[in-house]
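User: Hello, can you help with two protein structures?

Assistant: Certainly.
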Amino acid sequence: MNIPPSKAITDIRAAPIQQMHLYWLGKSGEQQMPSRAQIAPEDITKLLPYLILVDLEAEPFRIYYRLVGTAVQQRNNRNATGHYLDELSYPTAAEITATYRWVHDQHQPYFGRANLASRIGHPIIFEYGIWPLSDDGRQVNKCVAMEVYHGISSRAVLRDVLKS
């Protein structure tokens, strides 16, 4: 599946995503990407509700949700923590998988924005970022991600989007 090109971080208006990117860059230092051990929750407490930590399995390619922040859980009306993506019946699972595979293969962050208004008639902008992590400094085996929604006032609205 083809995915749209990654947005530039300057195109993302969600402050938590911009803050996470700066944090990730700072932790990367001279490395291409940091390890999961370098991501200290106490450094980013205000970002934790939007945070998603995943493990990536290479063959077959699978995404395991190690941790899903409370804001993401509320907006998706479920907690994916402790589950593989392919167990969750998300209607966008193929797109999600393709995006994580891109991060895995390219060793680069990916930023995106989706306008969900066309599905339900409400102005909802969904922005996200996915940053690669590596235990050995070479292979991407984990990611930290964030999801931020703009213009949404109710969980039920997003739940309706996810059902379609």
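That covers the first. Now for the second protein you mentioned:
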Amino acid sequence: MTADSSTAALTPRPTTSHATAAVLNVVLATLTVITVLPELNKGQAGNDDGVPWGIVLLAFVLAILMFVSSYGVWARQRWGVVLTIVLNVLSFIFGAPGIIFGGSAFLVIGSIVGCVLNIAIVYLLLRRTPAQA
């Protein structure tokens, strides 16, 4: 056994649903950071989209934490799964009002996509894998 194969044998691979959830979580976090960063750059006084400043700041913090939780899911750590579920539930709670009250089409579509991804990620993490015979 070589050194590479022994370390590969010790590293658990994530299940397909967990790997998919981790990748979707990274995609969601990346999209959130990309869309929220310009709002953060404008500052509180330059926020003209109608989104409360606290929600903008919270979305950025949640997105950064989602990167950390994605690593935990990928590494098959229980804390990663729990943190990812909690962050996605919070993201859904704070993003769902944007579907109805979003000022522009970009905010409404972004809220819809974000909420659908939140639901998909939580579903993938809570789904039981079928037992193999």
